[in-house]
Amino acid sequence: MPEGGIEDKLRHEDMLSLEEIYVLIKDFVELGIDKIRFTGGEPLVRKGVVDLISKVSRLEGVKDLTMTTNGQLLKHMAKPLKEAGLNRVNISLDTLDPVKFLEITRCGDLNAVLEGIDEAVNVGLTPVKINTVLIGGINDNEIRDLIDFTKKGIDVRFIELMPIGEAAGFAEERFVSNDFVLETVGELIPIEREDISSPATYYALPGVKGKVGLINPITCKFCANCNRVRLTSTGKLKLCLHSDREIDLKFALRNDRNIKKIIKSSIWTKEESHHLEDEQYIIRNMNQIGG
To answer: Do residues 221 and 237 lie in contact, with contact meaning Cβ atoms separated by under 8 Å?
Structure first.
């Protein structure tokens, strides 16, 4: 997060209402999308999100309903989310050091996240996955400690630092290849990829249920297998997370346009590849995109 917070805050009318989000999700599902993920930003701060998940979970055709969260509110919301129909959660966690955690998040409570992880496991929002962005000089000495979560049946995924938003200015000097994970923990065993569209390659410690995933958008692009699109909180369809090109579905929805026709024609123009390796970075911070 920016140190001074987000300056350009959105007006309520600039964002999709929960009702509009549901209408658009319904259209996507009717076109064949069967996996929905609520992410952000932070989805759990959105008032009414549990009710929205309950409605989406009842849509015919939805096979997997998931969420990526920072975990701050998860301890108290895990059970209602599970009861509403959420299948599982990914939790963003870049360090187990309380001081570093506060520095990275600006205002986060590490204990709240750890308690949220435990509660997610307890209520069955599984498999729980932890997403960790490797940052040189910050958390590259915590790899073994984070991998210990796999002994509890939790998956831990290491993501290469991408030059986006606040990280754009120091991404090159702080970049750590995911090969460093394999060098640090040499006993990791490769696991066959179950889902070809997954951005992660997986490994595991011998005899341990949880998996270690490596997501390498810089050193090993997975664009050829990408089948994902993102709908932002302001109703923009992003066909590639690392592209500034967006299709305005909110305008189309509020002006009675044929949403399904727009989605179908847009999908055929999905970018073949991102170009982070050529220093072509998106303008907006991740915390401004939402989805």
So the answer is: no
- Under 8 Å between Cβ of 75 and 119: yes
Distance CA 291, CA 286 (A): 10
Lookup: tokens for 19 = 């009702």
Cis peptide leading into residue 48 (ω within 30°): no
Q: What is the C-alpha to C-alpha distance for residues 284 and 4, in angstroms, rounded to an integer?
A: 16
Q: How many CB atoms lie within 10 A of CB 171?
A: 21
Q: How many CB atoms lie within 10 A of CB 280?
A: 12
Could you write out the three-class secondary structure of 220-252?
Answer: CCCHHHCCCCEECCCCEEECCCCCCCCEEHHHH
Dump pLDDT digits (tens) for 28-81: 999 999 999 999 889 999 999 999 999 999 999 999 999 999 999 999 999 999
From 188, 284, 253, 207, select the one nearest 21 (Cα to Cα): 253
Query: 134 by DSSP, 3-state: which?
Result: strand
Question: What is the arithmetic mean of pLDDT over 75-91?
Answer: 98
The DSSP output letter for 13 is G
Query: 235: phi > 0 → left, psi -120 to 50 → alpha, else beta; which?
Result: left
H helix or E strand, kind and range, residue 75: helix 74-84
> Quick check: bond before 190 cis, omega within 30?
no
Helix (H, G, I), strand (E, B) or coil at 265: helix
- State how far the alpha carbon of 247 is from the alpha carbons of 19, 231, 239, in Å: 19, 9, 9
